[in-house]
Amino acid sequence: MATREELLAAAGALGTPLYVYDLDLIRARLERLRDAFGRHFGVSFAVKSNPNVALLKALAPLVDSFDVSAFAEAERAIAAGMEPERLTFCGPGKRPEEIRRAVRIGLGELVVESLHEARLADRFAGELGTRQTVLLRINPATSPRAFGVNMSGKPSQFGIDEEEMAAAIDALAVLPNLDLAGFHIYSGSNSLSHEGLAENFGILTDIFRRATAHWGQKPRKLVFGAGFGVPYLPTDAEIDLAALAAEVLPGIDALKAEPAFAETELELELGRWLVGPCGWLLSSIIGAKASRGTELRICDAGFNTHLAAYGMMGSVIRRNWRIANLSNPEGSIERYTVVGPLCTTIDTLATKLELPATSIGDVIAIENSGAYGLTSSPTRFISHPEPREALLDGGRLTEVSESLLNHWRLADN
């Protein structure tokens, strides 16, 4: 894991706000995942979690596929060296032109989330003189109450409702230019519940069995939306992968023992879990004041820089993330409200946050920022400088910023 000294050196070299992604830590997490689940599962990386092209280039040889949610993400993946046939294209709002372009480049699997999408893909494949491989996304009727974001058991834009999957399979089977290869389910994300995740694997396995039985064919691929969470809050604990696998894999062993699934490729789709804990947003304290009994610290990263850390990506109640004072880790513990530089009272990163004493110029690190950070944030709001990005690989720092639209740095002279 990146050391305090390495992060401070990065901030000194490139300034703040700055995202730093640790490739060695990503590789180590991927190795842990394969040790636990690799007996049956491949790994699909969800590009939406962090679409930095340099990061994707490093990940491409390490994972089995990339999952993209827009054709522009497919272009980024290809630019990073990922072959089109190793791409899976999800998303409930695919534009007709995106579907046509996906078919044209020979994209690996188009995940159809409605019969309308399926019919468009069939038409475009016919016009282009090809057959497009598809996966049918199913939206479960039930799921454990264990996810930060739950996508199933309610009206949803994602996939075909489980109650309608038989009719959808029949409708797909008669489209001449589509090749149904299997099924896809992603029913929830960001769960740290061992019991909930294990229960979800069981629900998905049952649905896949019933879908396959109705279809009457052997699926070539099944995608299990993993939903693994990361410990954003100081009170959160990491998922015990080995313990989870010990509970889940006997059921998967039983599935693979059935003739219909013996040759089926199984994939875990992950984004947040793989890269989230491997990134930090570094921010400098640029202002300090006391107001009505509260010590305020103003940093140069606001919600325009990291919307999720500021509690604005689906959180009902904003809670303090894990934040460290890199410049003075051994200082006496004080209590602060930490805010960003934006001209709005909602630009609050943390309240009643206990940190080693901070001064103007100190660098703080917002942990678990490797996923859903920069590209999930409204960077042009109030036109503050956009964050830079850097990769740390074997102790070597490389800037990989993709947009410095309005980045400026104040010189001392």
TrEMBL record:
A molecular function (GO) term: alanine racemase activity
InterPro entries noted in UniProt: Ala_racemase/Decarboxylase_C, De-COase2_C, De-COase2_N, Orn/DAP/Arg_de-COase, Orn_de-COase, PLP-binding_barrel
Protein EC: 5.1.1.1
Class in the EC hierarchy, top level: isomerase
Domain (Orn/DAP/Arg decarboxylase 2 N-terminal) ranges: 24-275
Any Pfam family hit: Orn_Arg_deC_N
Domain Orn/DAP/Arg decarboxylase 2 C-terminal residues, every copy: 18-370
CC cofactor: pyridoxal 5'-phosphate
Lineage top rank: taxon: Bacteria
Keywords: Isomerase, Pyridoxal phosphate
Gene3D superfamilies xrefs: Alanine racemase, Lyase, Ornithine Decarboxylase, Chain A, domain 1
Protein family per UniProt: Belongs to the Orn/Lys/Arg decarboxylase class-II family.
Record protein name field: Alanine racemase
